[in-house]
């Protein structure tokens, strides 16, 4: 991972985030996942985050994201969860009927820090092998411009 530069600092910060869909419902279809990838690209531009990988097995979402020190890990999670939920409900309003309370994600989530080299490879492998059937996981590698 290369060192990033901000106005008064340099940094290398990467997180592995996991969000679970409310009631663990398997609502992330291939179409929904493609839309999630588009939303993540918009989040990258607006919030100066960089997504390394996004994976799902239908009832939860894994994200490997690089963030600037201006954001705490919980703030990055909040940004991703809120923007994704709002946009998913706008694009797929029928999903709201599946979720009685109208919330897409369960409360909370999971955050790990990820280092360079082997640690990143292991996290990507872990994301790739999620779920009972490893063939059902879809992973998307983001590429730097």
Observed structural traits:
single chain, 145 residues, alpha+beta, Alpha-Beta Plaits, five-stranded antiparallel beta sheet, two-stranded antiparallel ribbon, 4 helices
Description:
The chain is α+β, with helices and mostly antiparallel strands and 145 residues long. The chain has one domain: Transposase IS200-like (Alpha-Beta Plaits, 2-Layer Sandwich), CATH 3.30.70. It is 36% helix and 23% strand. It has four helices and seven strands. The chain has a five-stranded antiparallel β-sheet with strand order 6-3-5-4-7, sandwiched between helices. It is globular and about 45 Å long. It starts with a strand and ends with a strand. The model has no long low-confidence stretch (mean pLDDT 86).
Topology:
Layout: E1 4-5, E2 10-11, E3 14-20, H1 30-47, E4 50-56, E5 60-66, H2 73-91, H3 95-98, E6 110-113, H4 118-128, E7 138-141
Antiparallel strand pairs: 1-2, 3-5, 3-6, 4-5, 4-7
Helix pairs in contact: 1-2
Summarize the structure.
Helix content is 36%, strand content 23%. With 145 residues, it is of the alpha+beta class.
